[in-house]
Specification:
This protein is mainly α. Helices cover 77% and strands 0% of the residues.
Length: 287
């Protein structure tokens, strides 16, 4: 019924072209009432496919049945021989339709290609005649071309040397440009650090003058809980009536003011060496 929609007049369809009622009772009434006409209409499906006069939605509708697991000749044949024949016809006509809609565009493309080939061959004949004329001029121009090629090569060599110099110059400019950005950031950082330097130096001076001899836990507690809060409070009070920022880093670290990372690394390396020497002196045998 799906395949014969629009082909067999007795099949009732909706405005969209879809079969209105696909039940078995409707199929017996709309198809089986005239078996001879039914068989003739089935045979006409191929003709409609070849002529492209069939509604393509018919094949979209029938696929929901073709794709079912039981819709194959072997399964249907176990139930009914005639139904197996119809099943085989449906499967084959769907396959044929898929081939036609795939092959037909290729046939048209082939015809267009053959037409274009004939036109191209005609043009080729004219071009070949023209080529013969040009070949006579080619011999004359070859000598001039060789001379021009030598001049061209000399010019290209000069351009290549210039491009190499230009590339090196651009690389240098780019390198200096990126370095300039880094310098600019460093200047801004140094200006910012310079404003906070008085408080940081004052805190570092207090560290050296008063708490250097103490143990690290006590030094840390004095710095974080006594000295630093006191200085921040005093600076805030002094700067309350002005727009100046507190001249002190909120995360001030006296070691960063007094030393550099490289110097600390040297200290650690020297300390490790000293420990090794002490251990060796205590245990010369390495145990």
């Amino acid at each position: 019924m799906c395949l014969l929609a629009g082909i067999m007049p007795s099949v009732v369809v909706q405005k969209s072209g879809k079969v209105k009622d696909t039940s078995w009772d409707a199929a017996k009434k709309q198809l089986m009432s005239n078996i001879k006409d039914y068989m003739m209409r089935l045979k006409d499906i191929k003709k409609h496919v070849d002529d492209n006069t069939i509604n393509h939605n018919n094949f979209k509708e029938v696929r929901q049945y073709v794709e079912k697991d039981y819709f194959n000749v072997e399964t249907i044949k176990a139930k009914n021989q005639a139904a197996a024949g119809l099943c085989s016809f449906v499967l084959n006509i769907v396959t044929y339709y898929d081939i036609v809609i795939t092959v037909e565009p290729k046939r048209k493309a082939l015809a267009n290609a053959n037409t274009q080939l004939a036109e191209a061959n005609t043009k080729l004949d004219r071009v070949m005649k023209h080529v013969t004329t040009l070949e006579e001029k080619l011999a004359k121009l070859t000598k001039e071309l060789d001379k021009a090629n030598r001049s061209k090569q000399n010019a290209m060599d000069a351009v290549e040397r210039g491009e190499r110099k230009l590339n090196l110059a651009q690389r240098l400019i780019n390198a200096l440009s990126s370095e300039n950005e880094r310098w600019r950031e460093n200047v801004l950082l140094l200006r910012h650090d310079a404003k906070q330097l008085p408080g940081d130096v004052l805190l570092a001076s207090a560290f050296i003058s008063y708490i250097g001899p103490f143990t690290k836990p006590l030094r840390t507690r004095l710095m974080d809980q006594v000295f630093k809060p006191f200085l921040i409070k005093e600076f805030q009070a002094a700067c309350s009536d002005s727009d100046d920022a507190i001249p002190m880093s909120l995360d001030a670290n006296s070691l960063k003011v007094l030393t550099a990372e490289a110097e600390v690394a040297q200290w650690n390396a020297g300390l490790c060496q000293l420990k090794m020497e002490v251990l060796f002196a205590i245990h010369p045998d390495g145990h």
